[in-house]
Amino acid sequence: MSKNKVEICIIEDFNINYCSLLAVTRQLFYNFFPKNNNSIYYFIDSSEKGHVVLKFLLRRFKIHFERLDFDFIEIKDENGVLLGLKVFYIDLLKIQKDILGCSFFNKIFIKDKMTTEEKLFLKKRIIEKDIFGSEIMRALYLVNVGLWKARNSDADNILFFMKPRVWKKQINNYAKTHKVRIIWEWPFIRYCRLFSKLLIYTKRIIQLAKWSKIWSYMKNEYRSKLKYISNKDKIIINKIKTNSNKAVLAVPYFGNLNLDKHELQSDLFFWHQSKLTGKDIIVMFGLSIDPFDSIKELELKENQINAISLNSRSTVVSSIPVFRRNKYFNKHFLFNKGLKILSENIVLEKNAWLKRQSVIYEETYSYWLQLFKDYNVKVHINWFKHNASHITISSAIKQLGGISTIYQRSFDDDDLPKASLATASDVVFSYNNDVSNESEIGSVIPYYVAVGYIGDYRFKLLEGPATTIRKHLQQKGAKHIIAYFDENTSDDNRWNPGHDSTRFDYGFLLEKVLANSRLGLILKPKRSFDLRERLGPIVKLLKIAEDTGRCIILEGGTLKNSYPPAIAALASDIAIGGHIWGGTAGFESALAGTPTVILDKDGWSKSKLYELGKGKVVFNDWDSLWCACKDYIDCDIKIDGFGDWSPLLDEMDPFRDGRSAERIGTYLKWLLNGFEKGSTRAKILADAAERYTDAWGHDKITSVNC
Fold it and tell me: What pLDDT, on a 0 to 100 scale, did the predictor assign at position 272?
């Protein structure tokens, strides 16, 4: 290494492993040649024990390693573009295509007779996302973190010591294009862990083999009498007493019922606006953070809607059936555990990865197949398509002759296809009929149905409550009212925007309210139940602003705020969206007719919103945005194009008539009616599509990769 060059060395996992020991040895070598020692060593994560041991040894040899501190919102390129967005929106799809183009997948796709769903499941599992927890996404992001650190340290070389991953070749290629060199952890020490674990699991296998014989005997002898009772919560696993011949629609619970408050967010928004009855629906509860309780039970019972719990943690009452499998007697359990040990403790090998994915697919597929069969579910509706789990749902219900549906919940404001959103579903309800991105990412959708924005029916319902809020603020002296929509933040600010960013944004607005007695502020957080905790010291400022009576925060719901953005927008003169990559709230606000501006501190100029005008709709900092808001409020002559989304709205929602939820609910009712008539799945789908196109136009339904 030239003595003039500075090298940054980063260890992903600073423990007693090959990479850490190699890095230490390397530094010891350079200690003997101090003139050439221009390496700076950092680490990303470390275990407590490993860190203590290494820190003790390194102190004796005078070797310095420090934790690399970085903030997600600060990791930007030379042009100010947030690299986390670039990885998710652009790089992830490129590397997925690179992986799928290798001979490994070409062989298995040709050799194995895989269904469409199985192929797409594998494609999505390659880049499975869990808040930058996926191995590929994390690796790509860390490469960019290294680049950012080198650029800010005037370093010439970047060396990354990374944990082993399945797709090392493709990650290496990505790193090389960015002039980053990767050294992969050697798996020798992992073999030692493997042998100790295998001894433990061998004993378990022997015990479980004995139990499996007993279980098999009991199942065959007393099949009709068995009832599995959980020792933990004593809930009996049984079926809901309904007409077994009636086809039902299954709806996952994501945090909002509001069955009698149609103006609020609801997981059953389509039921509100259609001829679907409560008896047509079964709600599935699977959230431990917001479990089924007596209040939800009463609300559902009053509307004649049935419910089941998907695990014992998602209910706190015993009146609801719990559907689950006993994993100790699952025929795939041992195989899955064995593959998990092999894939995590030996070299991550492609065939082992493939077998593990097959087991995961089969397990989840079998689970949903049994659930749909037991409860006569013929139609399933969902919005969450960000991972591969929904594909097994589509496959299972298809096997039973049922129909899977997915609706678009979030506004997509750019033309970039996102690999994580690929889906396989019989019907997709979308805002519009643009299928270009779906086609690019490999989605398979026989019926792609344009319905418009799903929350537009609430606008009329919210006019009264919004007027009440506005009058309250005006009575406290507010002449001009501004609404603000935020995005979620994370405790670990390395992988997602942290709480400091939210504190800064809220602090800026709250200070403006306190400095101007004629200003009113409506805060509509995306997630409100823990907002005050996330705001930290800014809570004191929030309390002072609330005490003036000119600041209102709309709080409700558990996972997602039960108040829709439109209630804040309709009560305001101007609405502000805090992030360009979370534009659903801003889109709803613009549809409701309120001038809406977006703050883009991430430099994401690929957004369509830039077409509406930088300095008119999109702003890159708070100061310029606030100056524009003041000019708009104070000037008698309104600024041309300020907060105006009209050139984009017709493209994004070709209806704009407040009937989107009605269209979805009606379509679902047609599907259920088809099953009640005894029609085949294919005929039901074809008839529903024909009725819809007759009503709304033949351009409103198309297909993707079919």
Answer: 87
